[in-house]
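Structure (tokenized):
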């Protein structure tokens, strides 16, 4: 590269930094907005220039803003919107590998890869997550019990560190394990190479059944989860008595060609397109209290009753099975201006009584959650701050304005920590820092590596300050 070219790139990058604007930034839960200088780099050079110009309040990378809490916020500092770095660099359709920029979304990968017979290895409940965000939060999906979290499928990544160096980072190293689930605090992920999963169609073969209560649900999951790649249960947390923890359990595999109707099989033209449908966006204003106990209770009753007692082999589109809420743009508005808290925890196998006790407490408290799911996790992932561990994980959405919510969740935190469990940092916005070490045993190693890698605290966020990460 010539000196003139380097000078031109530096000037362009500096211009991008100067054009930054101060905006209110919040997580998907919309509970704790803070103001930061938002930067939108278009090249790795602009990323490096932005990091050099962050100042004393530091900065943090941000993808599509689907972290529920304050992980991608930085009050008074800088936030780096990475979505313009969206190139898919190479696809090895024989080996099942894709190399792409960190700002590429899972949605875009599905659009490009499904027609080639490949699918992303892990997807959460939304496809609007960037690859960088998927690694930084070490996202999990409905297949963790069988295939682990996203970072387990990452072959390598490029990381811009605090001193401006770009490092090639591979699994099995301390830096990789600190970055996977490290919430963007080791540096800016610029790109990654990810291993994919082969599919024959863009449809899912889905089995659905009802569970009469929590014990019935756990028994079904324990006995049969090993037969399925994907497994999740919607759980009614307002049900009481004998119906406590009743649920609708759905498990699925990618539909093979021979699962299609006879006409499609004869034509040998398997559907491999990705065309998710979309409903009208949620309104900008929703009255507070709309999702109260009465309305959510009615919804839960209808949802449970309309589910089949048992149905096997139903063909569903990928978007229907994995991402139903993505069909409603800005669905987070339905909780009103106060937003909502997503609370997710995991407790280990052998701690089933703790799970039962927490479900009973949530039911007695009357938390109006219609988005509550229970899953089983498999082996722990190598990330030092990665959330999944072998055990039961429950996630629920709760309106943030529910009276007494903060002390109630504090009590649940203590119960989870005492049982050797943990809460999910990518969804957290209110955990007390004194519980963190009990939940994440390798926290001290993370802090030590980060102190050596970034002694000036260049990479920082509202989450990192709140929890002293």
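Design, position by position:
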């Amino acid at each position: 590269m010539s000196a003139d070219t380097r000078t031109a790139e530096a000037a362009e990058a500096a211009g991008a930094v100067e054009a930054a604007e101060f905006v209110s930034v919040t997580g998907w839960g919309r509970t704790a907005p803070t103001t930061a200088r938002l930067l939108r780099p278009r090249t790795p050079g602009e990323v490096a220039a932005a990091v050099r110009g962050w100042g004393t309040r530091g900065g943090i990378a941000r993808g599509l803003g689907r972290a529920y809490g304050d992980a991608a916020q930085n009050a008074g500092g800088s936030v780096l919107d990475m979505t313009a770095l969206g190139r898919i660099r190479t696809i090895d359709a024989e080996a099942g590998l894709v190399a792409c920029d960190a700002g590429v979304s899972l949605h875009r990968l599905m659009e490009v890869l499904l027609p080639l017979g490949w699918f992303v290895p892990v997807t959460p409940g939304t496809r609007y997550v960037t690859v960088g965000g998927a690694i930084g939060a070490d996202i999990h999906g409905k297949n963790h019990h069988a295939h682990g979290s996203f970072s387990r499928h990452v072959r390598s990544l490029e990381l811009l560190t605090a001193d401006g160096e770009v490092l090639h980072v591979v699994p099995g190293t301390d830096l990789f394990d600190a970055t996977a689930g490290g919430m963007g605090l080791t540096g800016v992920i610029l790109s990654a190479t990810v291993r994919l999963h082969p599919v024959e169609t863009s449809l899912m073969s889905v089995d659905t059944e009802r569970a009469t209560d929590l014990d019935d649900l756990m028994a079904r999951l324990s006995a049969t989860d090993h037969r399925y790649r994907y497994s999740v249960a919607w759980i009614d947390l307002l049900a009481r008595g004998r119906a406590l923890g009743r649920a609708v359990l759905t498990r699925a595999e990618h539909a093979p060609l021979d699962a299609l109707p006879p006409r499609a099989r004869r034509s040998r033209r398997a559907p491999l397109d990705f065309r998710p449908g979309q409903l009208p966006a949620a309104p900008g204003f929703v009255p507070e209290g709309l999702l109260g106990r009465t309305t959510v209770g009615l919804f839960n009753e209808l949802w449970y009753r309309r589910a089949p007692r048992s149905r096997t082999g139903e063909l569903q589109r990928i978007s229907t099975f994995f991402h139903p809420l993505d069909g409603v743009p800005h669905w987070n508005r339905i909780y009103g201006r106060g937003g909502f808290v997503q609370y997710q925890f995991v407790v280990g196998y052998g701690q089933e009584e703790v799970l039962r006790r927490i479900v009973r407490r949530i039911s007695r408290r009357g938390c109006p959650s219609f988005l509550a799911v229970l899953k089983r996790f498999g082996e722990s992932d190598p990330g030092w701050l990665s959330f999944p561990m072998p055990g039961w994980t429950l996630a629920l959405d709760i309106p943030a304005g529910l009276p007494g919510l903060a002390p109630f969740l504090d009590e649940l935190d203590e119960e989870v920590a005492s049982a050797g469990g943990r809460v999910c940092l990518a969804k957290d916005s209110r955990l007390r820092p004194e519980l963190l070490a009990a939940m994440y045993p390798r926290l001290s190693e993370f802090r030590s590596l980060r102190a050596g890698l970034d002694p000036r605290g260049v990479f920082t966020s509202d989450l990192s300050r709140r929890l002293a990460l």
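Reviewer-requested clarification: The CA atoms of residues 28 and 66 lie 5 Å apart. The longest helix spans residues 3-18.
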